[in-house]
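hey so i finally got around to running both of the ones u sent me last week. sorry it took forever, my laptop kept dying halfway thru and i had to restart like 3 times lol. anyway pasting them below in the order u listed, first the sequence line then the structure token line for each. didnt double check formatting much so if smth looks off just lmk and ill redo it

first one:
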Amino acid sequence: MQIEYALIAAFAEITGGKLYLMGGGWDTFHAAEVPIQLRIAIAAGVRIGWDETNVPIPLVVRIEDDDGQELVRIDGMMQVGRPPMLPAGSTQLSQMAANVPLNITSFGGLRARVTAGEGDAADVRTLPFRVLKRP
């Protein structure tokens, strides 16, 4: 299993096996003042190998500040079966999207960390972003 993509956006959803994304691919949000309630979306696609089908795979999304303090944590599981017409050895894409409210109390850096799997087999993507004072 391998994280194929991970993005920050304004809004994301998975419908019919497709990712629908609005305002994606940013890393800086400007605000007039803090504290501010900010809603962000985290979208991720995990490529599941043939031998990893029919096995629960943990997926954790953490949003933390630059000091490593956890602001949001989402724990989930992915499990992909093998459709009967799938060619032997094929991989499959499993996707997730989470729209998350964040209470930002100070300007500065943050990061979203997406982890698929656990232990030595885990794959991690870190998405740094920041909230800055509007010029």
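and the second one:
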Amino acid sequence: MPLFVAQHRHPPEHCPASAEMGSLLLSRVSAATAARYGVAIEAEALIDGEHCLLLVVEAATRGAVERFLAFLPWPDGLQVRPACSAEEAVERGSCGPAHQPVPGAAP
């Protein structure tokens, strides 16, 4: 299944870890909830002092990850990017995009 990194940045006043929203965050960023969206959480972290949530997930599509995280406040703060493991990058000889454009081919 493809790997993605989801990053959610938010202003302090919209922090999903606040006392008002923390229980929602814990219930939604869970293996059981993620599975309902076809997402598997590999790792998660909140960067201290930066109001930034990072998730490394596996999912069939970027859209599945976006639907899983749609509950987060400040929707403009969400970025979902395709990723790969170090092993996969070494196997393909680069940490560049998985599918390199063919020179001279139409986009």
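quick thing i noticed on the 2nd:
The two ends are 25 Å apart (CA to CA).
anyway thats it, ttyl
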